[in-house]
Automatic annotation (TrEMBL):
Superkingdom assignment: Bacteria
Name recorded for this polypeptide: GDT1 family protein
This protein's GO CC annotations: membrane
Main location, first listed in the record: membrane
Record-stated family: Belongs to the GDT1 family.
TM regions (residue ranges): 38-60, 67-85, 132-154, 166-185
Length: 187
């Protein structure tokens, strides 16, 4: 049980202000359907953290920490640029709904955003430390939900008052800062 409680606390704290928490806010602002977003976050986190132990350890043997810093930094900056590009509806999306639905879009976006994230790395380290895979994955998943679900519900209310363009500009600025920190922060 210690592995569960420690994993929950570490990931909930690590997730505060993280890019995936920002993604949760953006999804809430874009789709305004909190339940499919929260369910998508849950399933994506279970899948990502479930694979983190095996895949995360393997990837770190292939890519050195210096290269990983540059990859993450460039990815954050690319995400900032992407945030500034206005959404365009494809001809098949004339009703304004996402191609994969709110749940599917959230699942894919959240799963990809968690790749290489500090909470994914924490899951790998905690699973190795405690040798309690299921308790660690359950704890890290609960920590992610404790940090992100409230953002979805409160973010939906807040974004009804704040224009989505402002949310995108602030999000882009945060992603640029995260990218620069990833590249230039001392190792």
């Amino acid at each position: 049980m210690e592995a569960f409680f420690v994993s929950t606390a570490i990931v909930a704290l690590a997730e505060m202000g993280d890019k995936t928490q920002l993604l949760a806010l953006v999804l809430a602002a874009r789709f305004r359907k909190p339940w499919p977003i929260v369910l998508g976050i849950l399933v994506a986190t279970l899948a990502n953290h479930g694979l983190a132990g095996a895949v995360g350890a393997w990837v770190t043997t292939l890519v050195g920490p210096q290269m990983l810093r540059w990859i993450l930094g460039a990815s954050f900056i690319a995400m900032a640029v992407w945030m500034l590009i206005p959404d365009k509806l494809d001809e098949g999306d004339a009703d304004g709904s996402p191609r994969w639905g709110v749940f599917g879009t959230t699942l894919v976006a959240f799963f990809l955003a968690e790749m290489g994230d500090k909470t994914q790395i924490a899951t790998v380290m905690l699973a190795a430390q405690y040798n309690a895979y299921l308790w660690v994955v359950a704890g890290t998943t609960l920590g992610m939900m404790l940090a992100n679900a409230p953002v979805v519900w409160l973010g939906d209310r807040i974004t009804r008052l704040v224009p989505i363009r402002i949310v995108h500009l602030v999000s882009a600025a945060i992603f640029v800062v995260l990218g620069l920190v990833a590249i230039f922060a001392p190792a």
